[in-house]
Design brief:
The structure holds 2 protein chains of 2 kinds.
Chain A lengths: L1 H32 L5 E8 L3 H14 L3 E8 L1 H14 L6 E5 L3 H4 L6 H7 L14 H7 L1 E2 L2 E2 L2 E4 L3 E6 H4 L2 H13 L1 H10 L17 H10 L12 E3 L8 H14 L2 H7 L25 H13 L10 H9 L3 E8 L3 H6 L1 H4 L7 E5 L9 E5 L6 H11 L2 H11 L6 H7 L7 H10 L10 H16 L5 H16 L2
Helix pairs in contact in A: 2-18, 11-13, 13-22, 21-22
Chain B lengths: L1 H29 L2 E2 L9 E2 L3 H8 L1 H33 L6 H13 L2 H12 L4 H8 L18 H26 L3 H9 L4 H28 L4 H6 L11 H11 L7 H33 L1
Antiparallel strand pairs in B: 1-2
Classes of the chains: A alpha+beta, B mainly alpha.
């Protein structure tokens, strides 16, 4: 009896195992072999541009009902990392890629050339107004080795947001004049220390335009240096060990690089190397070429003293410090924060609503455009290309601006929106985009960013002196680039 | 019977092969290759080049020492604090034991991301910690960059967080150990005239010795993998002060933002981490055996 029972149980077990295996195989076959009703494309949408891309995707599926979209919202670092790893697996996880301009070199080999898409899917070409793009950024970041690899979706550029109510206050203006007069010698010495021009110390309170303005006006509005300051923090700046160090350093270095002395010592600015390199593709801040690299680093550290905890400050802290009225300005911000400080300020930052002015960042403005392109590994390149082109329509560009302050990359859209933002759209954002400071966008850019973040934060934390930091940074960059 | 047992084990074996054995073997092989996903079309065999890089990679060496220092601070602190708290919770006069036990569970239950965000706010320049210090006349400190003027002390800030998070785990384990000690041992000790301190030293502590050693082993292994709080609070900075080996592996293999990015070198670093964990675990296990020999 027991033996028969055991035999029966063994047979039941075997049957159960067979059923489970068959069920798994059947489900797999159904999933892989049954054709989907709609084509689904996965779209990478990063950081501040994400709300705009999501809104545009909702319109896209109405116009193309046979295409489904899944917009994947990532923060800056995660989006970059996930896409880089997708290149290793070539799994086609993402159909539409998105990259910061500095990663153009890293992403280019993995983007489907637009000319190939045109040849393969001629009926899918819905966008042809290439001449309408801002030519400089389109050439630089949407092309690689002569081929178009994508489109500029968000023409972001550095901008300054400041408390115009404080700047225009007559009593504060009077106090500023007196403060500068009382501290003039000290301020001149400070400017000379960083090889800035002591004759350009601003004696009137104006919108900061130069690094001298930034240094002095920021100092006036810092309570630590001026107990009568109406704000605690003169200028908020990020000194946490993240990718932001790269563009902040470029921002402060660029004015010298573009100066007659900089051009004489380093030669023309060539792409894809940009403002931090010589024409030979070597670090321009090399102490063997100039001591300005060291001076700029020291200036950066000086600016970090205008806030209490710079090494713990990153993007969201800068937003809050200006938004809650603690800071006078965020000189190294970006156009994409326009929506937070201006359009949506009554909801997000009521303390400063209506009180914020916009101007180009003092010195030079680094550009930071965002591009979209079709992944070479996409299983639906035609549909992905349709979406990329759809993003470039005038209507979509307007939506991207309204939802996310993604500055348009098309000149006609800029002209159309400009009357709504007098003094800002063309005079600030477009003007900055046409004469930008440019970072490198070589394939090795991620390593370069990490290297500069490490050495700059080491210096700001006091672990090394400025000369050691710049010397080691130079050596590392050369090693990374194989020079 | 044997056939049915074999059939039932097959799915587990398949999963083990796919999810454990294959990745491990792949890892062992990858350390002889170089592969940067954005630049290389496929892994390139480089022999022992990754080993040469390791020898000259100062950041890797620094990350190992940072990891060991962090372990050296957090593990003994957690064990000692755990013993103290467990003893206090187990004292006869302690009221509200159940409530206290629930309270100390809270740090362990909060997800790492929430802990990171909360402690970032606590450590912030205008955060509650600095406000308390200010009220005591101590100047506010940049806890996540250079507390008391020394960037190296940032490691202590991270250690505080790790100790706060995991001491309850040790405490709970020890409480259960203390509560598991037979009551008649305490009665016998009391009858013999032993004080509370002597009872703790000669009765409780020896009885929970095994749990202490297990906690030591578990916390040591866990502390060698600290990553989440570094990612949330300091991102390995300032400079490389708080970059531990797991974080360096993350940077090298995941963000590809290091001097030697790529899967091959990251694989080698992972195996180094495994080797260090095994060494330390083996040393602790040897100590346990030595203890057993002494007591036997």
């Amino acid at each position: 009896m027991n033996r028969n029972y055991k035999k029966a149980i063994t047979k039941v077990q075997a049957v159960i195992i067979v059923i489970v295996i068959v069920a798994i195989l059947a489900a797999g076959a159904y999933y892989f072999l049954m054709p989907p009703a709609k084509v689904k494309i996965r779209i990478v949408a990063i950081a501040h541009a994400a709300p705009g891309m999501k809104a545009i995707a909702e319109n896209f599926v109405k116009d193309y009902p046979n295409i489904e979209t899944e917009v994947l919202l990532f923060d800056w670092e995660t989006g970059r990392d996930k896409q880089l790893h997708e290149f290793a697996t070539k799994a086609g996880e993402y159909d539409v890629l998105m990259w910061d301009c500095i990663y153009t070199g890293a992403f280019a080999p993995h983007c489907y050339p637009v000319d190939d898409l045109k040849a393969k899917y001629p009926d899918a070409e819905i966008f042809k107004d290439y001449a309408d793009f801002i030519p400089t950024i389109d050439r630089q970041y949407a092309h690689w080795e002569g081929k178009r690899i994508g489109y500029v979706h968000c023409a972001n550029v550095m901008s300054m947001f400041y408390r115009k109510d404080l700047l225009e206050d007559p009593s504060i203006q009077a106090k500023y004049k007196k403060w500068v007069a009382d501290h003039l010698d000290e301020l001149k010495a400070l400017a000379s220390k960083f090889k800035l021009d002591p004759t350009k110390i601003p004696t009137e309170l104006t919108i900061p335009k130069t690094l001298e303005d930034l240094l002095v006006i920021g100092r006036f509005f810092t309570k630590k240096y001026n107990p009568e300051s109406p704000t605690e923090i003169g200028n908020t700046i990020m000194a946490m060990k993240t990718h932001t160090i790269h563009w902040e350093y470029c921002w402060l270095f660029a004015p010298w690089r573009h100066s007659p002395e900089g051009m004489a010592k380093c030669g023309d600015i060539v792409l894809p190397y940009g403002d931090m390199f010589t024409k030979d593709g070597l670090p321009a801040f090399d102490p063997a070429i100039t001591d300005m690299g060291i001076k700029v680093l020291e200036l950066f550290k000086e600016l970090t003293t205008y806030e209490p905890a710079p090494m713990e400050t990153e993007w969201s802290q800068c937003m809050d410090l200006l938004g809650t009225g603690k800071a006078f300005m965020w000189a190294g911000s970006w156009a994409s924060t326009f929506i937070d400080f201006i359009e949506k300020a009554p909801e997000e930052y009521p303390a400063i609503a209506g009180k914020i002015g916009v101007a180009p960042s003092p010195g030079m403005c680094v550009d930071g455009t965002w591009q979209v392109g079709v992944s070479k590994y996409s299983k639906h390149p035609k549909e992905a290309w349709l979406y990329c082109q759809y993003l470039m329509s005038k209507e979509s560009q307007k939506i991207a601006w309204e939802k996310a302050s993604s500055f348009p990359s098309r000149i006609s859209v800029i002209e159309e929106l400009a009357p709504r933002y007098p003094g800002i759209f063309k005079e600030t954002f477009l003007a900055s985009l046409l004469k930008p400071a440019i970072r490198d966008f070589v394939p090795e850019d991620p390593e370069l960013e990490d290297s500069i973040a490490k050495w700059v934060t080491d210096y700001v934390a006091g672990r090394v002196d400025a000369e050691t930091a710049i010397r080691e940074l130079t050596a590392e960059w050369k090693r990374i680039l194989g020079k | 019977m044997r056939r049915s047992v074999a059939l039932l084990i097959i799915p587990t074996l398949v999963l083990l092969l796919a999810l454990v054995i294959y990745p491990t073997v792949y890892l062992w092989c990858m350390m002889f290759f170089s592969y940067h996903p954005a630049r290389d079309p496929y892994p390139i065999f480089v022999g022992f080049k990754n080993f040469e890089i390791l020898i000259t990679d100062s950041e890797a060496i620094s990350s190992i020492s940072t990891m060991l220092i962090l372990m050296g601070i957090t593990v003994p602190s957690q064990i000692i604090l755990g013993i103290i708290l467990a003893t206090l919770f187990s004292l006869r006069g302690t009221y509200g034991k159940l409530g206290l036990k629930v309270l100390i569970l809270i740090p362990m239950m909060i997800p790492a991301v929430i802990i990171g965000i909360n402690w970032r706010m606590i450590f912030f320049s205008h955060g509650p910690l600095n406000e308390i210090l200010n009220s005591l006349g101590i100047p506010p400190q940049p806890w996540l960059s250079a507390p008391f003027g020394n960037p190296s002390y940032t490691l202590f800030s991270l250690a505080i967080l790790d100790i706060w998070q995991w001491t309850p785990f040790v405490t709970l384990a020890l409480i259960s150990g203390i509560e598991g000690v037979p009551k008649d041992l305490y009665e016998a000790a009391s009858l013999d005239g032993a004080s509370e301190r002597q009872i703790f030293r000669y009765v409780s502590l020896p009885m929970i010795k095994g749990i202490i050693v297990i906690m030591l082993l578990l916390r040591t292994i866990d502390s060698l993998r600290i990553f989440d709080i570094i990612y949330m609070l300091t991102y390995g900075g300032p400079g490389i002060v708080t970059t531990t080996l797991p974080f360096y592996i993350f940077k090298t293999g995941f963000t590809l933002m290091s001097l030697n990015p790529g899967y091959g070198y990251a694989s080698l670093l992972s195996l180094i981490l495994l080797a260090i964990s095994l060494c330390i675990s083996t040393i602790i296990m040897k100590i346990i055996r030595i203890e057993k020999l002494i007591w036997e």
